[in-house]
Amino acid sequence: MRSRTANLLGALGVALVDAQTQLLATSPTDAAALNAIGTVPGCSITEVRVTLGITHPGTVRTIDRLVAAGLVERGAGRDARTVGLHLTEAGERTWQEQSEARLGWLQQTVAKLTPAEQKDLERVASALLAAMTSDEESAERICRLCDESRCPQPRCPVTLAIGAH
């Protein structure tokens, strides 16, 4: 039974990634970078790098691509040593549209379940996310497309798991 459950979970993960990727106006990496910058305006390239889980040069190339597309602009950072990243109006629009499309599809999918199944799904998903969180960097990567306004930090199973480790 366990191997079937694991296999089903893997298939579910692939289906969820595929469906969400199709909804994005940008690449998944660009979408995650927009989400990081939109969630924390003025964040640094290093903060975006942690969220993306890629190298510094790869993050710089991602930011360069978003700047060239008119979605992100570089500005003053939190201190004199860093460059702050901000969404442009077009970047804000793209970020919001992608977030709404992603959440809309997910809500429609979850709505196909009974209320009891929805409650079970939330419980199991929360437990799995907590189990997969090993540190702050893994938490940033896990939640790279999350809408934090819908899962506030004090209730987020990923954030709570960091404190438990």
Automatic annotation (TrEMBL):
SUPFAM superfamilies, per database record: Winged helix' DNA-binding domain
InterPro entries named in the record: HTH_MarR-typ, MarR/SlyA-like, WH-like_DNA-bd_sf, WH_DNA-bd_sf
Segments forming domain HTH marR-type: 19-118
Protein name in UniProt: MarR family winged helix-turn-helix transcriptional regulator
Organism, as annotated: Tenggerimyces flavus
Lineage of producing organism: Bacteria, Bacillati, Actinomycetota, Actinomycetes, Propionibacteriales
